[in-house]
Amino acid sequence: MAKSKPIGLVWRSSTLFIVSTVGIGLFTDLFLYGLVVPILPFILEDRISLPQDQIQSHVSALLAAYAGASVLFSPAAGIIADRVPTRQTPFLVGLVALLAATLMLFLGQSIPVLVVARILQGTSAAVVWTIGLALVLDTVGPGNLGKTIGSIFGFISIGELAAPVLGGVVYKKAGYPAVFGIGFAILAIDFIMRLLLIEKKVAVQWQVDGLEAGDDQEEQGANAGDEEDANEEEPLLRKKEEDGYKVPEGQPKAVKAFPILYCLKDPRLLTALLLAFNQAALLATFDATIPTEAKQLFGFDSLKSGLLFISLVLPYLLLGPVAGWLVDRFGPKPAAVLGFGYLVPVLILLRLARPGGTSQIIIYCVLLALCGIGLAVIGSPSVVEASYVVTMYNKTNPDFFGEQGPYAQLYGINSMVFSLGLTLGPLISGGLKDSIGYGNMNVVVAMLCLVTAFLSVVYVGGKPKVLQGR
Fold this sequence. Notes:
By secondary structure, the protein is mainly α. The model is unreliable at 212-230 (pLDDT under 50). The chain contains 21 helices and no strands. The radius of gyration is 23 Å and the shape is globular. The protein is 80% helix and 0% strand.
């Protein structure tokens, strides 16, 4: 007997609802992360009664537990997601892990409980980012991926900005219950949306008028446009390009079990992952150094330092969708090269801010806003480039990668690399700031952006004509 048609099938399987659900899921992950981190020292001191001289080391350990779990579980999440019939089930499981983590952080009375909570939180992050990005690609297709990712990243940056400030203010005014109450409310909204979501490939079985044909045509058109753009940029690679993506017979068992491993030999994919790592490291560098620099320059407390992030995030929020659309239209190479190249002088100019009053604060805010423009430009080239490369492998070797392709595995690797960037960025930048100063630290970061821009010229979108054949 055929299943009855679900209530609200059309809107529950619409592109807008699916993309919004993924956006809310990523927002929840970042928001809860930012909400809890500022109050971890107070949890250790007030609830666990930890001595003051042990708090910093335990906070660092709890942060490391989150990052480690996210790095380690991301590839596994990708493998699982590519082997289950739908993305929705693991997407919901990830939220259950986040709910359990939040409950344990709220009620935990010992260090081991808090460590397990942070591991669960990191595991949930791995699942949400891996499944979420794969679900977005399933829904909008490669041709619309740039503007969609740009829009999502702009939206979730609000959570990254607001959570630490809100967590600190609410904790100061109303204590732990109010802080975690906000978290549970957002989790409830997230859970309802994930539960209501119906993937397009599931909705097709009910033959909804206009759903299958319209969406398939949109995706096919997007893919065709993507391939046309690629062919315009790389006219010599039509048949030759497909041959370059052919996977030879007799691959090792590890590659057969985790097919994305074969793709990692491709310099275009490796460069795309480098873009993701550097993007995350840049974001984490700003997170780690803006509050301490604002305190040294202007005597700002945590709340005022948090408000400075508006200058950084607002351009990201406003320009992210536009930058993503341009990536869809012109390919990822211009955005990657110009974005990282643009950040070189802007990062160096951050040294212009000096201790002082309103005029110096304005200078610093303007410089941060200029950095935000660069962050908006580099927001989507990594995902778009990586998706294109893996799509070519999948089209050329459909039997090797399985029915759903290796996309969740790809985003698992991407999540792992991004988490590494978020972990190493603050450690490296913090060490550089302490040893050579804030201005010189930004010069080093700028040089890394310059190297990234150069590698993007060579590899992103394929080699330029002058380098082909070398």
